[in-house]
């Protein structure tokens, strides 16, 4: 007669059956797959972060280059005005004291202020000719209420002053589509409004280059032909 099989001796030495080994293998494969997915996600995140950092560095370098170009454009022709403190140049922004341009509560230019803007127009015109940028002319005031009846409040006064400066610059040859005005009223002060000296610093006009907004014509040209041919 055939002897019965000895099942104990046929089992694996470590005590695990074949199905158990298969389940263990599947578990380890799942763990390894999860690890690979986590590692891939981490690598993708690092790549995205690296690209973001590169974009930020490129943006900062472009802004620095724009500031340096503006300073070089103004350094020679306006050296005396800079030295006399009639204008300031910091972080790529040209600052002009409100007292140089306007009387208190007025948006009508002084004669000296108009002459200063005319001297400023030439270098700015040359600067814009070399770059696809625009100039933002911003008006600022102190926080004292407007006492004349010509303007409703400081917002309106700052807007009219910015427009006055913008119109002089375009009359001196700057492209009208490359200059725009902005009004900030008493917002964004550079000094305390608690004393006369600080309020005088806050009454100012600033001119700053900025990337030119995408033109409507360029956007239309880039649109699909099927969208325009109707």
From TrEMBL:
Residues 89-213 form the OmpA-like domain. Residues 213-230 have a biased composition (Low complexity). This is OmpA family protein. Keywords: Membrane, Transmembrane, Transmembrane helix. The chain crosses the membrane at residues 20-44. Pfam families: OmpA (PF00691). It comes from Pelomonas margarita. The keyword Membrane applies. SUPFAM superfamilies: OmpA-like. Residues 207-230 are annotated as: Disordered. NCBIfam families: PRK09040.1 (NF006547).
């Amino acid at each position: 007669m055939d002897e019965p099989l000895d099942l104990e001796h046929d089992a694996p030495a470590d005590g695990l059956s074949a199905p158990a080994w298969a389940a263990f293998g599947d578990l380890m494969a799942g763990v390894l797959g999860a690890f690979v997915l986590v590692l891939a996600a981490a690598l993708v995140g690092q790549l995205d972060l690296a690209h973001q950092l590169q974009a930020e560095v490129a943006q900062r370098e472009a802004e620095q280059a724009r500031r340096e170009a503006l300073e070089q454009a103004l350094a020679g022709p306006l050296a005396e005005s800079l030295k006399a403190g009639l204008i300031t140049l910091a972080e790529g922004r040209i600052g002009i004291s409100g007292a140089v341009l306007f009387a208190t509560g007025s948006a009508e230019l002084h004669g000296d202020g108009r002459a200063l803007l005319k001297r400023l127009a030439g270098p700015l015109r040359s600067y814009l000719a070399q770059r696809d940028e625009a100039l933002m002319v911003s008006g600022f005031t102190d926080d004292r209420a407007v006492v004349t009846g010509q303007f409703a409040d400081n917002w309106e006064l700052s807007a009219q002053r910015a427009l006055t400066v913008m119109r002089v610059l375009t009359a001196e040859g700057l492209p009208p589509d490359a200059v725009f005005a902005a009004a900030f009223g008493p917002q964004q002060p550079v000094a305390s409004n608690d004393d006369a000296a600080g309020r005088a610093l806050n009454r100012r006009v600033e001119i700053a280059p900025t990337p030119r907004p995408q033109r409507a014509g360029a956007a239309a040209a880039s649109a699909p032909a099927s969208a325009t041919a109707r």
